[in-house]
Amino acid sequence: MEHLLDITGLTVSYYTDIGRAIALNQVDLKLKQGEKLGLVGESGSGKSTMGLAMMRMIKPPGKVEGGSVVIGGVDMLQLSDKEMLKRRLSTISYIPQGAMNSLNPVLKIKRQMIDAYKAHYPNHKLDQILQLAHEAMISVELPGHVLEMHPHELSGGMKQRVCIAIGILLRPQIIIADEPTSALDVVTQRQVIETLNRVQQKIGSALILIGHDMGLMAQSMDKVAVMYAGEIVEINDVQTVFTSPKHPYTQALISSLPRLQNRGEFRGIPGMAPSLYRLPNGCRFHPRCNQQQPQCQTTSPPKSVFEDEKYVTCHLYEAS
Amino acid sequence: MFVLKRLLFVILVVWSASTITFFIPRISDINPIRERFAELARLGGFSAGELEKIVESYSKAFGLDKPLMQQYFDYIGGVMTLDFGVSLNKFPKTVLMLIAESLPWTIGLILVTTILSFVIGNLVGALAAWPLSPKWVRGISTSFILFQGVPPVLLAILLIFFVAFKLNILPIAGAYSIGTIPDFTFEFILDVLRHQILPGIALIFGSLGTWVLSMRGMGITIQGEDYVVFAEHKGLSSYTIFKDYYLRNALLPQVTAFALALGNVITSAIVVETIFGLPGLGFVLITAIRSNDFLVIYGIVLFITITVAVLMALVELLYPLLDPRVRQGQE
Amino acid sequence: MINYLKRNVSLTIGLGLLIFLILFTVHGLLTIEFKQAYPLAVRPKQPPSLKYLFGTDFFGRDLYTAMVVGVWQTAIIGLLAGAAGTIIGIVLGFISAYFSGLVDVLIKFICQILTPIPAFLIQVVIASSIDKRDVTIITMAIVVFLLSWMAPTLVIRSQVLSMRERQFVAVAKLSGMNSLEIIFKEIFPNLLPFIAAAFVAQVFQAVFASFYLAVIGLGPLREPLLGNTIWAAQSQSAFFNGWWWWPVGPSLAMILILGSLAMINMGLDEMANPRIRNKE
Questions:
Q1: ipTM (interface pTM)
Q2: Which of A61, B77, C38, C255 is the 20 to 30 A CA-CA neighbour of A90?
Q3: Is the pTM higher than 0.90?
Q4: Residue A145 sits at the chain B interface (C-beta within 8 Å)
């Protein structure tokens, strides 16, 4: 099957007063149609930057310095600004992290869906658009009259679902959901994730779920990509990542997850993630790695590819 | 209910204003009538005893001999019915008549300048903070901000000096050319407009800077809001985002600020009028000050206070129409 | 510090102008003859020349001398009224916020009611009630400050309110400081930037208001206050008679004064509000 999404060598840096922070370094990623990928990593690992880069929403002082993001054969990074505008929401859409403030406070929900539609299909008739908006509401399990309301009248979970509804309005091929549940309580979290899964299935789009809740990833994703200090250190199908993680970082991550069996003993990973302004030489994880080898301090580890889209970035697997 | 609270506030403001306006002059010993007649007498010669008798009889006519509290209640009562009393200087014209005659000149000027400076100022400020605006827009906004500290009066004088005096393009003062008879002809209206240009410019530029500065600050804040970013994620055009997501939200606090600024607008207008010799409310006020026509002074002060208070209340009542978060009585 | 001044343009320009004005005034005060600022001192209606730098007016004042004295008097009014307004603001604002309850409600209420009243107009009423001969620099300062204390009161009150709830006050209370100590040692130092900004704003307001009052003829007429000079010029139809230097000189001086104060105000605002500071 042809890959829907093919990212190669994506590099993004931020230039500030302090210096240059390399947020993404030569990242490769492939995704098939309808596939669900969980993108995990700690704060500063670059996962949010990935999402923004795919939408071409990196703003100064950030800069995309190389690579390509090919969706359906077209490189997003080479498109003109105008063309990219057309692709946003229709080809690839983004559901933001804090829906609390993502909706315009002075406009009705209905209006915010209509303008999204009109920006891409200016010739559609209003009642057609309203019909589609209505359907979108139903698919996120919100009553139709929500369309007539203003954002401040909705709860956090409802607002997040509205954002999901807007995200699927034009049936995009890829949906990026950036920590859609971080600001919600556990019960609402579940609702929102279920909604997300359901709509994704209905449309058949690929899903990239960015987050740091491993439990959530285990439940609904097909594949998981682990990011660290601006690189994907491991990407594999969800089973493999959880039961036999390859990269030392992933291993430490998985083993630090609390399980019902072992109570009381929580193991964190010693040390701290490096500052993106002063990355260590060689492998970025080597200062905290318990399986360090001499070459880890000097040379960057290569990608050891298992199957087409699955690889691990570590010297341990260099032989294959 | 909400409306009632606002109404009560307006009444309270007006009441305190009228009370202050009433009692302050009574603290001093000056009897306006005596002053007036003393002036007349100075011109025409007088005898002291006669003067006192005249003053007494007029005082009685104006009710100035009644006990203070009685005068106060009469006064408040009068204010409620918009009866501000009679002008001492231009007797028998009532204060209300004087106000009514001069008001059109002032209102025209204020209306146009306030609206123009609000619209232009806010637009320039919004554009100045918008990252996609061309550089020259930001240059203009900085220069507008510099005008902020300059009261319209001073600007007026400089304008008169450069434009009217040296270059002789526009008239120095007056509402219409000396010697013309007011009439509703086209030429007259044109003449009047010519005379309004400099005062208008002075007033507009006086408040422009404030709007540009505050809107620019607001714009920077709004830009960082999540909903503006999400609007971009939706693929909306810059124009749509600017209009519906950015501008509409940034304007809200400006509307409130507008209500608060009304008092300043009117005072600036009055002073500018004196510089240009326009026969508006300001002119009447100044004449009254020079001739000690107390009742006119108080009448105008009160009239303006009432107008400002009512306008402020109106703006606050209309605000929910713009900002749905403030609307009450919804689900 | 120098680096900050380089970035905060308005503050730098404002301070620069202010220093220039102070130097001008001080130099002037030391070198002029005060008499010349009053009528019938020199030949009237002279345009600017080497002898009379700013010309003379209809009544025979040397306008240069008049300007120096005028700027000095404006400064006095500004500082007096500004200080008075700020002090009242601090006292009332503090009392209102720190001790809350009925006192707070009362003070806040009075401030709110008085604010919409166009202060200028009331000042007009007061000024026109005083016998014309009694109007002096001091009375002007009083008139001006009587209606401007509300703003600093409200500002300081809201600042103290927000500070009262902050943790360092709770910590101080727990460690046994009594109310007075907390006020002076903890809260006051944090208020200084706001007090400074309020003071500058008050001075600006005072200069502005006294200028406006003078321009419509309510100032101490004999004194060469800048506003007075302009009023005198207008009432003698200076422009129609061609004596343009009469109102223009004082106007330029006034613009410099107000401009410098406004710039300093803007600069202080930027300093006190870190968010705007970080953006540029």
A1: 0.85
A2: A61
A3: no
A4: no
